[in-house]
From TrEMBL:
Entry keyword annotation includes ATP-binding: yes
Species this chain originates from: Cynara cardunculus var. scolymus
Any one of the GO BP annotations: embryo development ending in seed dormancy
Protein name from the UniProt record: ABC transporter, conserved site-containing protein
SUPFAM superfamilies associated with the record: P-loop containing nucleoside triphosphate hydrolases
All residue ranges annotated as the ABC transporter domain in the record: 107-335
Gene3D superfamilies, per database record: P-loop containing nucleotide triphosphate hydrolases
């Protein structure tokens, strides 16, 4: 049961806010936009508690406390308390430096902790991770070690796809959600045009969008009739995963977080999905993937593999870590 005291707190520092965050120049819109991003839309009569702490031309710091009875805040989120400093460098800033110089930091997570408020159980015990443009990171770890909690912070699960896209972030779901009554094509067109609007680009009409999406369908090896079906409704597990990658291909992302994108895929589907992810990699974007199996890493080659154990990253290395894991299991990863 919900405790009245349960609340969720966020502390974010946005360095060089991108166009997606341009509405953050006044104090009201950050609250609404941020709450919306985390799936906690409040009604005008129940404004979020927002403490706007500091703003410079390049950064903003604010804390949001969202109470559980806000519309769309599901019960399970309310039981979390997450504390972290997340530095997200804007895509615009990255792109402008794409021609040379040192790689730009896309995501920096410092000392992320997550606690179940009711029980006091710690799920994340101080996770630190930096991701630079052009890098592919993989997180492996035993069941229940905190990988998904880290990747999504739970609260991001309710965020609309277009909002994630506007923030330059793409999250694939371990179990992709169905959206009854909304066709795949309408959903993608809406999300893609929302991004174009924010970028100051003209929207595409359905015919133009059809031209845009056809090569993407080929890239992921999805038949065009999937566009007419409702989002993920009646899709097989593998089809849902392919559809996730189609969304990534259409919307684009500076940082794509792929949570067990390989689960439930047959060998051919795994190849298709991996091929598409590799094709989408550029020198200015990055991928963070969670997987249990070395097989995915043969197709999408990571620069770094992190082992998550008991809510923290206990080891970081290259593909040799996955080789040892495959042969010897997690006991070989335990630190003496
Ligand atoms: N809302 C919640 N309430 C209580 N416990 C939770 C909640 N969400 C996650 N947990 C617990 O936190 C731990 C970490 O969960 P998480 O889903 O992050 O693990 P994981 O490493 O992704 O596991 P898997 O490999 O099985 O997907 C688990 O023990 C899980 O039961």
């Amino acid at each position: 049961m919900l405790s009245r005291a349960a609340h969720v707190e966020y502390r974010l520092i946005l360095s060089k806010p991108s166009s997606a965050f341009s509405g953050f120049q006044n104090h009201r819109s950050p609250a609404m936009a941020l709450l919306h991003r985390f799936g906690c839309c409040s009604s005008p009569s129940s404004p979020p508690l927002l403490s706007f702490q500091k703003s410079t031309p390049n950064s903003m710091l604010f804390t949001v406390s969202a109470h559980p009875h806000h519309r769309r805040c599901p019960r399970r989120f309310s039981s979390f308390r997450l504390n972290a400093t997340i530095v997200a460098e804007s895509p615009t800033a990255s792109a402008s430096n794409g021609g040379g110089g040192p790689p730009k930091l896309l995501l920096e997570v410092k000392d992320l902790t997550a606690v179940i408020s009711e029980s006091g159980k710690k799920i994340l015990n101080g996770v630190n991770l930096s991701i630079y443009e052009g890098e592919i990171h993989a997180i492996m770890g035993k069941n229940g070690s905190g990988k998904s909690t880290f990747a999504k912070g739970e609260n991001l699960l309710e965020m609309e796809a277009e909002d994630r896209s506007l923030a330059g972030l793409f999250l694939s779901f371990q179990s992709p959600v169905e959206i009854p009554g909304v066709s795949n094509s309408d959903f993608l067109l809406m999300a893609y045009n929302a991004r174009r609007r924010k970028l100051g680009l003209p929207e595409l009409d359905p015919l133009q969008f059809y031209g845009y999406i056809m090569p993407k369908l080929e890239m992921v090896n999805i038949k065009a009739d999937f566009l007419n079906r409702n989002v993920n409704e009646g899709f097989s597990g593998g089809e849902k995963k392919r559809n996730e990658i189609l969304q990534l291909a259409v919307l684009g992302a500076e940082l794509a977080i792929l949570d067990e994108i390989d689960s439930g895929l047959d060998v051919d589907a795994l190849r298709d999905v991996a091929k598409a992810v590799n094709a989408l990699m550029t020198p200015t974007n990055s991928v963070l993937m969670i997987t249990h199996y070395r097989r995915l890493l043969e197709f999408i080659k990571p620069d770094y593999i992190h082992i998550m154990d008991d809510g923290r990253i206990s080891k970081t290395g290259d593909i040799s870590i996955a080789n040892i894991l495959e042969k010897e299991g997690y006991k070989a990863m335990s630190t003496p």
